[in-house]
Amino acid sequence: MFLPKKTAALTAAAALTLTLAACGGSAEAESETPATGTAAEWPRTIEHEAGETVIDAQPERIVSTSLSVTGTLLAIDAPVTATAVTAARPGTTDDNGFFAQWAETAVERDVEPLYTVGEFDLEAVIAQDPDLIVVSTSGADSVLDQYEALSDIAPTVVVNYGDQTWQDLAGELGEATGLEAEAEAAVSEFDALVEETAGKIGIEEGTTASVVSYNAGDTSPVGKPTGPHAQLLEKLGFTVNEPPAEFDTSTQKREDFAFTSYEGLADSVTGDYAFLISADEKKVDAFKADATLANIPAVQNDTVFALGLASFRMDPYSATDIVTWFGDTFAK
């Protein structure tokens, strides 16, 4: 069962618990419906970003080498035994290095820290004795270059969380884990929350927005319309502006963010609203005080908002917190 936890960066008003559980029908109907992950559905061949992988039986010990994917795995009740972690940072992670939005769930389920992102440890993976390994294509947590070595340990699937919503990612992971029904339930409940919130806040058609992870005086990721943050904002009624490619310093093709030079930031954050991710009110104040950004629409109109310290990576937990915040903040 997916029970989102409120992040420390969000206000108490944003603490909405969204229980994702499939609604039960009659006992007769349940008896006639085959259970997800039954023996008849295995083995199965999974097509993914690195090719095809045959999974002989429904996974029971999943290792996630991608910290950004772990939240979605937990939300569909996947049996994650260990995950890569990041350096512990107050407001963003717990002491284990788990992202704050799903840390409590991970601890409750006895998920173990695998290794710190950037310090890949093949022996740690082997020690987990996994029957499925999940890898991401890009991002700081990607170990795509270790795909062959990991595939020698256990079936390994590669996913791209940068060019799709967590809902689409949940569908992919649901197929690989035999948890399609759990993935569909999580998505349905979340989509219903988004639809309800969009109606509640009533954003005027044509209202534009920019998404930015602000780093004063340095490169700042600015959200692309194809990224998961932008897709969520679009569903809430905003139109997300495309950041100019000329200021993008990315060394690899990305669909989620343009890593924008500081010199080009004012020309890239052009929305009526600017939503800052990985940010709190102190970051908002710094953004508005930055002289190079003084003339952008959001600063001029005082429409710069922080989406929370845990908002950079979109998973079911952080996305639910964001939607709840919009419902509380923009309600008419």
Automatic annotation (TrEMBL):
Keyword DNA damage carried by entry: no
Stored Pfam families: Peripla_BP_2
GO annotation terms (biological process): iron coordination entity transport
Domain Fe/B12 periplasmic-binding span(s) in chain numbering: 61-332
Keywords, sorted A to Z: Signal, Transport
Domain of life: Bacteria
GO CC field: outer membrane-bounded periplasmic space
Cell compartment(s), UniProt: Cell envelope
Predominant location: other
Span of the signal peptide: 1-29
Family: Belongs to the bacterial solute-binding protein 8 family.
Listed name of the protein: Ferrienterobactin-binding periplasmic protein
Species of the source: Arthrobacter saudimassiliensis
Annotated gene: fepB
